[in-house]
Amino acid sequence: MCGIAGIINNAGQPPVSSSMLRRMAGAMIHRGPDDDGFLERNSLGLANRRLSIVGLSDGKQPISNEDGSLWVVFNGELYDYPKIRADLERRGHRFKTSTDTELIPHLFEEYGERFFEHLRGQFAFCLWSVRDDRLILARDRFGICPLFWSVQRQQGRETLLFGSEVKSILASGLVPRKTDLNGINQIFSFFALPGPMTCFEGISQVSPGHYLDIRRDSSASELSIRDRIYWEIDFPDQGEELNPPDKLAIEHYEHLFVQSVKRRLQADVPVVSYLSGGVDSSLVTAVASKLLGRPIPTFTVGVRTTGFDETNLAQEFSKHLGSTTTVCEYNPEDACADYPKLISAAEFPVVDSSSASLQRLAGFVRNAGFKVAMTGEGSDEFLAGYPWFKVNQILRCLEVLPGVRVGNLLRVGLLKLTKQPAFPMRMLNAAQDAVGGSNGWLEVYGMMSLSKVRFFHPDLKGKLFGQTPYAALNLNTERLKRWHPFHRGLYLGGRIMLPGHLLASKGDRVAMWSSVETRPPFLDEDLVAFTNSLHPRWKLRRLKDKYLLRKVARRWMPRETADRSKKMFRAPLDSFHMSDPKLPKWIGQVLSEESLRKTGYFDPKAVIEWRKRLPSMRKSLSKTSVEMGLIAVMSTQLWHHLFVSGDLAEIPSLIPGGDILGESLMARAG
Question: Which of 32, 1, 5 is closest to 21 using CA atoms?
């Protein structure tokens, strides 16, 4: 992968600032320590920071077609590039490099806007057509690669800024550092930031499967910007799902998965694999080793706390394959110490403490001399690997009276029983209406979003409680209503949790902080399309999750590994709340009454009270809800300090005057 950035002034405006463009590229040097490249022409500037993985000697960007009429800066990988390149050469196209980036201008030249049909892999890019002064800013189907943009007015005319990271856009100096409260609302509703908004006012994400169609006109003061969809997660209408014989389904899924892993092994540098004790990463590792003809190097996290450590399971499977695994030791104290670095990388509040361990794991991979690692993301989302799908299946058996939401009544009863704050039923109903009805995904995240009720400042509640954050996702509710309710839950995981957390604060953002590219074989277009076409019984059968995957896995590994239950991977949360003098001082500083009043997001009295009560609470759903809510509060306060104000704690920030980021990254790149 790489990092891309750019400045797009409207036609006829003065040339872009070279120093500004280089600041934007320099802010993400960690994404591309191997090389840089720039194009400045016609009031437009494109920049690239390169992590060399394919076409090591001749892949410098920006790259154009033969006559220079199309230019591109690209981040990602196109896995079928040898086959596609050969086809384009037969059609008369001439290539000057061996990199997959060069496919993009030639595919656009050949197919126009239909070129997205031929782009297979993970990517974010900006393509400029010189002839009609048109730009395309696009992101891959699942949101593996990040892409942000902002429009600012200068002297009465619009300028569009884009970058692989928010830091790049902020480095321009054109965008004020202000909080978008809708982004904060997404964090506390979803524990993820799926977009299109961010936590920064005036900065948006390009949504997965979308592209911005940008036209410039010297006679207009505004750029023409249209957000268009080229692909969406889809499922059959209820009753039209496929239900093939077992042998056929298993063999076809296995074939598609093997092809997916084979594609993601393509690189001009060695590829490694993350390995836990679960079936997902174990299957990736087993198939990759078979295709390579040797055990693939593996890396695993050793969370040294009872109930969370899967090191022995990973080492046991690694031994089964004939290899050893590199273990990244990780203690609860490490999570506390690493959180400022995690938020700096993610650029939004992160609630899942295990993300910090994956950030350290990527550092282990890089220090061992590797740049590319395969992961197991995407399996749980599309094969129902999470426990709330089982809960929802049980609750649905109670929904027998038309128009009576029995499950909602049970939720209210559970809240009262566990002494949780009263959650406005209208908010739950509005959420269900926005997503086409009840589903498994809402079961858990509807409950965990109680943190808003518990901790938000009354003023913030007044601003945000009148709207549902699901509305901002721009979902096609009528389409969702036609699907099986089970598939609606899968869809929300793929639309919200996948790009908003797993591929961001547990994927690209933390891995690329150490200049490591992650590749998830379960997010192959053909594989997901086949999985989604199947009846729900292939995902969850008699409360057995990932049914189809486990059947395939039995062909590649011992049955006990293939059938091992899902283990939620997260570091312990209570270490952030203990009154331990060894804890970093910044935790108490950002959660002090003074700091809480400065930001104005949270009720200081509630935060302080629950911090005191937490250590004496018994282990329960209620305690977990409070723990995660306090982590979200702490993380939001830390994010505000690092990116917005710099005055909440005695640690460096990433704002002008407190920025040590550039020096540290330059040292790492050197």
Answer: 5
